[in-house]
Design goal:
It is built from one helix and eleven strands. The strands form four sheets. It has a four-stranded antiparallel beta sheet with strand order 2-11-6-8, with no helix packed on it. Strands 4-9-7 form a three-stranded antiparallel beta sheet. By secondary structure, it is mainly beta.
Amino acid sequence: MTIRIINRSGNPLPKYETPGSAGMDLRASIDAPVTLAPLERALIPTGLFIQLPQGYEAQIRARSGLAIKRGLTMLNSPGTIDSDYRGEIKCIVVNLSNEFQTIEPGERIAQMIIARYEQIAWEEVNALEETGRSSGGFGSTGFV
């Protein structure tokens, strides 16, 4: 699949780092470092604008390395970029560590996954088919 993209960031286009990668890293398109205090959040621009085909979304997710090493993650995760959105992709970054964390210009801050979706139609009914689990809640399969 080919997706149209505008890159106003000065950073390279997102790419798959390995043949098995599901996500592509997004980079901060900022002129100066942004420092986040513990529990502080910021909207970090990427400089990227995309045109997705209908039936697809871009999911914005945390990078596991940033999360474990520095406590930086994404709020509203995964964030959804709808197929009819044409604005700049921006990432809501939060610092969950106990230390100040600085995001540098061009730093890889998130990952983007392109995923197919379907829109549905509701069918209101009075009952649902029973299953072995039925209404068993969290942990009902023996895993907590």
